[in-house]
């Protein structure tokens, strides 16, 4: 079995999954909140350039989500494989898998960058960017040219999560976010680069993260896992383990980007480009509100994978239910606070220039969208159960079912066919999430019960 080495957190995941979940989730919640807060600051500075510029960045947001999606997805694949091997007690295989992960990420990031650069304008036109396409392109080309840093940094975090360490990724992410907050006004206004400046600040901050991670891995050399070339020995089964969770998880998040693109087009049809600005800005606030739920779910992958490798299936049940319990409490608190302070939150992004005209719609969006938060608490935790046991395709299907299936269906039904317009589109998100999240919860509970009964 696994050794009691204090330099990693896998032993805690095997012996006390509840404590491991809390210990690993808190740094991840902090780091993701800071990063999400940076996204709001970014939107704040861009909003000063006007509603059209804000909408242009909003149209590029789905494409940006593709980059982040592949990084996070492949990071999840790495976390699954590494935690699984460490749970099995195979440190050598875990070291080999860590360098496999980096190589796979570099290859994928280069391919994705080339494809998106070629398809950028056609995608923006298909989304209906219209008069804002110039701003979307100015911002997007710079982001895509530096996208390897965005994808690789997110994926490297998966190596740390695989060994149960979420503190150091927190330091790197917080440092990057703070740097980005400082650079935004400098590049956007002081250097008069406009929306291009926001993109340059993002890339510089991503490079900063890579340098920190390289220092820990290859200069200080104090990580438990050793992703160095001397440990690399190509193994098909290792690549398969990383990819069978990583690629579906990437497609899962890619589907989120597809949903954002389709939903932006729907909003343009039933409303205007102002509605897209409301959606892209409001969704940044939604991301902050739901960040603790995503952090707990992301941590759950490693906890479940370690116990799956060790065949401790009862611990999987304990971790899943505990994750849902904590997430539901957080979701209710965040939903209430967001609803009460919706006007104040909207004011932050609509207090100047032409952005003032979207203040009322943004407030309404924030007040209604929080209805689904408590069901997201159970849905997220349940989806990540499937990633934690290596069933990435099932988790991907659940996300597609939620976003492209139920949510778009209800949004079109209420927004177009029943004539409720933009409000109907908002309600489509709420109803789609409520239905699909409950289905996912029941599905995960059934799977865990089967694992336990088979083991008995």
Observed structural traits:
mainly alpha, 85% helix
Structural class by SSE content: mainly alpha
Total beta-strand segments: 0
Could you tell me the radius of gyration in angstroms?
Answer: 21 Å
Largest sheet, if any? none
Cα(first) to Cα(last) distance is 20 Å
Beta content comes to under 5%
Shape: globular
Residue ranges: pLDDT <50 for 5 or more in a row?
Answer: 1-7
State the order of secondary-structure elements, H for helix, E for strand.
HHHHHHHHHHHHHHHH
SSE inventory with pairings:
Blueprint: H1 10-15, H2 17-47, H3 51-87, H4 91-127, H5 133-145, H6 147-162, H7 167-190, H8 195-220, H9 236-270, H10 273-309, H11 313-340, H12 342-349, H13 359-369, H14 373-388, H15 392-417, H16 421-455
Helix pairs in contact: 2-7, 2-10, 3-4, 3-5, 3-6, 3-9, 3-10, 4-5, 4-6, 4-9, 5-8, 6-8, 7-8, 9-10, 9-15, 10-11, 10-13, 10-14, 11-14, 11-16, 12-13, 14-15, 14-16, 15-16
